[in-house]
Specification:
The chain has 284 residues and is of the alpha/beta class. The chain contains ten helices and twelve strands. The protein has helices at 31-40, 64-78, 101-108, 121-133, 149-160, 189-196, 205-209, 212-224, 263-266, 274-279; strands spanning 7-9, 12-14, 19-23, 45-47, 82-85, 91-92, 98-99, 111-114, 139-142, 167-171, 201-203, 229-233.
Length: 284
Amino acid sequence: MVVRNIVNIQNIEIGNAKVLIAGPCAVDDRYTEIVGEAMRYGTHIARGGAFKPRSSPGTFQGDELMGLERMAAMREKLGIPIVTEATGVTRRTPDGKRIDVLESVIATADMIQIGARSGQQDFLSEVGYQTAQAGNKPILFKRPLGLSVQQYLDSIGYLTQFGNNNIVLCLRGEQKDTSTTTRFKPDMDAIAQIKDAGYPLIYDPSHTTGKRELVIDYAIRGLERGADGVMIEVHTDPDYCYKGERVCDGQQMIKPYELDALTPYLNRRSIPHDEGLKMVNVPT
């Protein structure tokens, strides 16, 4: 019999009920408005990127510390927990300033995300150590690109070696595949393998598909295959994310009202205090 690991974030038990995580790719000045709208359609945890991993240093890197401040301000107003990515232990800005990324994210977020580009053992060990020191703060660990399911499961040991077992796994597609209509090859078959290992699992249809018109369909597929929840990128104006210097994943973001299609699959009322979360100071 598989022993199920349940991760509790402000009375939201990931692994015990279907959870919806939603928010924009990158945090901007509309963050509170966006999350407020997403909460109307059952969002339990707000996502958003303050630090963004990018291939080129000349591209938009996120609002960084200001982004974390906006996330904290939103949580203070709306009462919903937040998850955001730590892109490294530190970061050096173009003007030479050193930012303690991991320390800042742990101090602010309710759950720390490790992205698919950040699965190196030294970083995993540091995240495991620092989150253990911070009271075993929960970690959302995305499957690194190029790792088999077994290698992915084995690498969890770097996170748990210091005593933090509050690990939630996340699938976001395997590798680029020109034979499919999606951005990455959907890793639906991995859901059952990971569930057999006992870890709560979130499915990310936004990064898997890379296309907003496919997001809801793949979210439903993931939930039907056994995922404990989904993480979806939303924005009140997805096309805004194509403009100016703040280019982000607008092509895979949907509008918050589209989350309503997931209602039959989320069993929202089985989550403690869910109704309270949806009613706290939501903007009108």
